[in-house]
Amino acid sequence: MYNAPKWMKALQYAVMIIVAAFMFFPIYWIFCNSLKTLTGISAFPPELFPSDPQWSNYTQVLSDPKNLTYLRNTLILVVFNTVGTLVSSSIVAYPLARMRFRGRNTVFTIIILTMMVPSATLVVPEYLMFRVFGMLDSFWPLILPSFFAQPYNVFLFRQFFVSIPDSIDEAAMLDGCNRWQTFWKVIVPLGKPIYITVGIMSASFWWNELFMPLIFINSDEYKPLTVGALTNFQLAGGGNQTAWNLQMAFSMLMILPPALLYICCSKYITEGIKTSGMKD
Predict the structure, then answer these.
(1) What is the secondary structure of 129-175 as a DSSP string?
(2) Average pLDDT over residues 76-102
(3) pLDDT of residue 275
């Protein structure tokens, strides 16, 4: 086995530390600004850390009832979209991976090709469709599409299911299971890593999604956290002035749940992605 010289290892660690510092600095700067006063943010030269931290900024953000409404709306979007994604994508992927029928590879190829269609091109047709159905300014335009399998998630599920030996299905069939029972009682438990991986990806996406809510949501009753962060910190008196310190505190709180979720489930994400990349 090749052993790199000590100076090479030291250089590698130095490069990684520098890159990590560049990656972490924006988060650190958000945190610092969240503890400043509004005038302190615009001070020059800027302070790397406030001399008088304003922890009350976080109390003010958390005590605002509008922000609690935005949090509720975001949790609704995260939960329903994650459930819809996991159910629909895995059900579509199962026959493509575990069943033999004419045109199976053609169907899978078509699904993969749809990934080449930019999602932005679908916004106008979706908007017109939901307007006809009277579903604008509600959760429906943001939740319903997740119950129709997403191509990338179908690909991940399919690749993971392919890696499971066929003998497991055959053993389940011999024990009297039909296709649905085999999927639900055998494949789903074995697919825990990919379910966790896709679930975390979906939850993180909808926790941070801004574009679609801006298109379909107008009233505060349905706005998620991302839209609330843009509209709920305007200072009184007009002029489009923003309370940047409160917005930074709000942003810092929004960073925490996805970060904690990733830290707790990182091993499942690695396992799910690694197995999904295996060849048939």
Answers:
(1) HHHHTT--SSSHHHHGGGGS--HHHHHHHHHHHHTS-HHHHHHHHHT
(2) 94
(3) 57
